[in-house]
Design goal:
Layout lengths: L1 E6 L2 H13 L4 E6 L9 E2 L7 H10 L4 E4 L2 H5 L2 H7 L4 E2 L3 H8 L1 H11 L6 E4 L2 H9 L5 E5 L8 E4 L2 H13 L10 E5 L4 E9 L4 E3 L4 E2 L2 E3 L3 E4 L4 E4 L6 H21 L6 E9 L5 E7 L6 H5 L3 E3 L1 H9 L8 E2 L3 E8 L23 E5 L2 E3 L5 E3 L3 E9 L2 H14 L13 H10 L1
Parallel strand pairs: 1-2, 1-4, 2-3, 4-5
Antiparallel strand pairs: 6-9, 7-8, 7-9, 10-11, 10-16, 12-15, 13-14, 15-20, 16-17, 18-19, 20-24, 21-24, 22-23
Helix pairs in contact: 5-6, 6-9, 7-8
Length: 427
């Protein structure tokens, strides 16, 4: 079997790693990949947003399956191109990917489908947006409608902060085209979950729910990032709650997208806020596997991922997934200056041995002319530990993160702090 993985971050390394573990004899390729992926797959020097060359590579290389990791090529229509060429692809059409590429569209879908979410308004005019903020209760959330690498949502404690955020987007052009339309919504209170569903557009198979840590600093302080770590399973994500999310969020979204001619085939990500009553509300939809949620969830699967992807690429429902009864924690190592101005170029030192059950997924790394591993992105490495208990997984992930060094390394030592507190209360 020949599989092409599109992308070059930590998510794509985790996907490649999981596919290789299930299919050690398969011929894997990644475009563009990264130094960590290079030990598992052949690297093709094609940027993830060059859909012309990616389509040609998938066709000429006669790949049996293409797995599209990032949101940008999906929004540009890579999956459409491949399906038009008769190639099997795991990833939604551009029309369906609009659930992430346009938060305004996503809100329309949620409203039409009756999906619980925060009350919101969409604006393209600065004065109208500022007038709405002046009348809005505090706190509130301002979101760039387009793709902003996971950094376009700003939680504003005051109307003044919200006005500044809107001026930055609509007035000053922060986030470029992504910020030309803004969504202003009420602030939701509760605990967040990340829920990934593998779907053919009708049936959904849910992966274990995880919890992402968006803030840069410990105790969930500092600026918003693309994600500083994640853990799974999450105690509040009971089977009953996940069934509600399936029935009240996932399935209605798929029905509404299909009604709009945007059938969703791939991985639908639902960012969920569980309110104090235990009810789920949608914070956002994404059109692909989460990052860093993928790095924490896929190592929990013993088997079934490849078969699910192939079946969905053929329009069928995903088969069963063999989820191990384990805990998993991922700690992100970021570059100095992340998220606003990450400093690149620092040499990375990896230990000869890692703690048991620890895997390091490369996200923003590159080899220099001498073959030395260096920092090349904001989020650099993901240190994932799988263990029988949450405490053990958290401890091993921390130990693995501590053992890796590069100048300016930024990381959180409290990934999973809510779960740790719950475990402590139990004992």
């Amino acid at each position: 079997m020949k599989i092409l993985i599109v992308g070059g971050g930590g998510r794509e390394h985790a996907i490649t790693w999981a596919l290789h573990r299930e299919n050690p004899a398969a011929e894997l390729a990644a475009a563009p990949g990264n130094p960590g992926i290079a030990s598992l797959a052949n690297l093709l020097p094609i940027p993830a947003d060059d859909i012309d060359r990616l389509t040609e590579a998938a066709v000429s290389g006669k790949f049996d399956l293409t797995v599209v990791g990032p949101e940008v090529p999906l929004a540009l229509g890579l999956a459409d191109r491949l399906r038009a060429k008769g190639r099997r692809v795991f990833g939604p059409s551009a029309a369906a990917a609009a659930v992430e590429a346009s938060k305004a569209f996503s809100k329309e879908v949620m409203e039409a489908a009756g999906i619980p979410t925060a009350a919101s308004r969409t604006f393209t005019d600065l004065s109208a947006a500022l007038g709405y903020i002046d009348r809005h209760a505090e706190p509130l959330v301002v979101k760039a409608s387009g793709l902003a690498a996971g950094k376009g949502a700003i939680v504003c404690a005051t109307r003044a902060e919200a006005s500044a955020a809107v001026r930055a987007m609509l007035g000053d052009g922060r986030f470029g085209d992504a910020g030309k339309t803004v969504v202003i919504e009420a602030f939701l209170v509760g605990e967040e979950l990340s829920v990934l569903g593998l779907t053919n557009g009708e049936e959904v198979t849910l992966l274990p729910a995880s919890q992402d840590h968006k803030r840069l600093g410990e105790g969930d302080s500092g600026p918003n990032t693309g994600g500083m770590g994640a853990y799974a399973p999450v105690t509040p994500a009971t089977p009953a709650l996940l069934q509600r999310i399936n029935d009240e969020v996932m399935l209605p979204a798929l029905v509404e997208l299909d009604r709009r001619g945007a059938r969703f085939e791939g991985c639908l990500y639902a960012g969920i806020m569980v309110d104090p009553t235990g009810a789920p509300f949608v914070v956002e939809f994404n059109c692909r596997f989460g990052d860093p949620e993928t790095q924490v969830v896929l190592p929990m699967l013993a088997s079934g991922l490849t078969d699910a992807m192939v079946r969905i690429a053929e329009g069928k429902a995903a088969g069963p997934l063999d989820v191990q009864p384990v805990a998993s924690v991922t700690t992100v190592l970021a570059a100095q200056g992340y998220p606003d101005a990450p400093q690149k170029g620092a040499a990375i030192s990896l230990p000869a041995e890692l703690p048991a059950g620890v895997t390091v997924f490369h996200a923003g790394t590159a080899l220099d002319a001498e073959g030395l591993l260096r920092v090349s992105g904001g989020r650099v490495l993901n240190v994932t530990a799988v263990a029988p208990t949450f405490d053990a997984a958290q401890s091993r992930s921390r130990a693995g993160a501590e053992a890796i060094s590069f100048d300016g390394k930024v990381w959180r030592r409290d990934i999973g702090w809510r779960e740790a507190a719950r475990q402590q209360r139990k004992s």
